[in-house]
């Protein structure tokens, strides 16, 4: 049975909720450190822990087991790229974009942010990324910038050829990606954490809140609020979206990116249309094809009215997709199309769902159908441009990007 003192100690030190990783994980870490320090019993180790900052850090390192890879949950990075490509906010040499990755672990997330921005057309001088983590060991790996097979997952690895060089030790990141990223050690629950920064345009704080208890979650969300610029956007993990909404943040309405504005953000300041999302590499779930609708049994008029009234609207379907409930969202879109006919927005959402389900052929068909009905549909234009780029059709993607830029200029006028 684990000693509750160590769980309480880690709770005070780093805000860790023992239930989030299990008491047995903490027990194993304590036993490993006790053995490494050549101590005969737990009490001796407890006393050492009270008097050694170095050993506190060693225990933290033993408890923290980072699990990350490049372009993990890629929708957030696609959202970032589309917002920046549309000039939200503006980036230049005088006022570069400021971004924060916390926790940055061994560097895959902040380097992914850099690659996404470079792919979006920014130069390394137009953005700066602060990457912060509690683990000195992870930061040392991040600064080396050499990664093995576990950091590259999924089938879409074209970025590795663009930004890495193969070496005998692994794949070494090129300087163009490393240059805008600055690593530092920090503890977000510490009272003096990042006390006086300028506001960040984007904060990536994904899959961190889930490790805290309720009180610490509220505190950390308050820190995120303080770190964000007034019109900034925070990206969190999918299981943390409800916490942000319950603590005064507003969804940016970008399906499956889990992006949020501060409550004080001006309406429409950075609220772009939903952005294209690289595929999630998971078991394929196809939205039902439009041409093969299910037969509808005869209903009484009254029953039919109730059935149609119960259908969610398109905004509700977007929220379902945003929460990862892709099949429900796809079925809802199909039902709306059966009832009201195909609309560009419904087709574009079906394209996004197919994209996220890794059915790229269906995604492209839906996007093109949406553009057939509405050639100025910005959502379908943006999604299809990134999809073509992923498939290697850079010429086609460039044409669509130019159409989207012309459309944005007309709207500004």
TrEMBL record:
Annotated keywords: Methyltransferase, S-adenosyl-L-methionine, TPR repeat, Transferase
Record-annotated CheR-type methyltransferase domain positions: 1-241
PROSITE patterns referenced in this protein's UniProt entry, alphabetically: CHER (PS50123), TPR (PS50005)
GO biological process: methylation
Keyword Methyltransferase: yes
A family per Pfam: CheR
TPR repeats by residue range: 344-377
GO terms for MF: methyltransferase activity
Extent of the signal sequence: none
Protein known as: CheR family methyltransferase
Source organism: Labrys neptuniae
Classification lineage: Bacteria, Pseudomonadati, Pseudomonadota, Alphaproteobacteria, Hyphomicrobiales
């Amino acid at each position: 049975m684990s000693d509750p003192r160590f769980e309480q100690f880690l709770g005070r030190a780093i805000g860790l909720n023992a239930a989030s990783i299990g008491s047995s994980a903490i027990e194993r870490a304590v036993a490993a450190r006790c053995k490494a320090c050549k101590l005969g019993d737990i009490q001796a180790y407890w006393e050492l822990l009270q008097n050694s900052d170095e050993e506190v850090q060693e225990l933290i390192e033993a408890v923290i087991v980072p699990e990350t890879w490049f372009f993990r949950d890629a929708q957030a990075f696609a959202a970032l790229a589309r917002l920046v490509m549309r000039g939200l906010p503006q980036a230049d040499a005088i006022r570069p974009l400021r971004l924060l990755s916390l926790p940055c672990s061994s560097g895959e997330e902040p380097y992914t942010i850099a690659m996404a921005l470079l792919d979006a057309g920014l130069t390394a001088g137009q953005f700066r990324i602060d990457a912060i983590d509690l683990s000195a060991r992870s930061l040392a790996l991040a600064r080396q910038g050499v990664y093995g097979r576990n950091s590259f997952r999924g089938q879409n690895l074209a970025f590795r050829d663009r930004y890495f060089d193969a070496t005998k030790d692994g794949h070494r990141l090129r300087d163009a990606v490393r240059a805008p990223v600055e690593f530092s050690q920090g503890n977000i629950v510490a009272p003096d954490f990042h006390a006086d920064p300028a506001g960040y345009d984007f904060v990536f704080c994904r899959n961190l809140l889930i490790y805290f208890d309720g009180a610490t979650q509220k505190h950390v969300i308050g820190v995120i609020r303080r770190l964000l610029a007034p019109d900034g956007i925070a990206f969190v993990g999918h299981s943390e979206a409800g916490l942000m909404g319950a603590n005064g943040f507003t969804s940016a309405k970008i399906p499956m990116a889990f992006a949020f504005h501060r409550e004080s953000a001006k309406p429409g300041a950075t609220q772009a249309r939903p952005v294209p999302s690289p595929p999630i590499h998971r078991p394929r779930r196809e939205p039902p094809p439009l041409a093969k609708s299910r037969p509808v049994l005869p209903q009484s008029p009254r029953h039919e009215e109730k059935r149609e009234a119960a259908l969610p609207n398109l905004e509700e379907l977007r929220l379902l997709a945003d929460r990862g409930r892709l099949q429900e969202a796809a079925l809802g879109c199909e039902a709306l199309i059966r009832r009201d006919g195909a609309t560009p927005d419904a087709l574009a959402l079906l394209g996004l769902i197919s994209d996220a389900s890794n059915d790229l052929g269906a995604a492209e068909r839906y996007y093109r159908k949406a553009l057939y009905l509405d050639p100025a549909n910005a959502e379908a234009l943006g999604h299809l441009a990134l999809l073509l780029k992923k498939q290697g059709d850079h010429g086609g993607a460039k044409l669509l990007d130019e159409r989207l830029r012309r459309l944005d200029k007309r709207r500004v006028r």
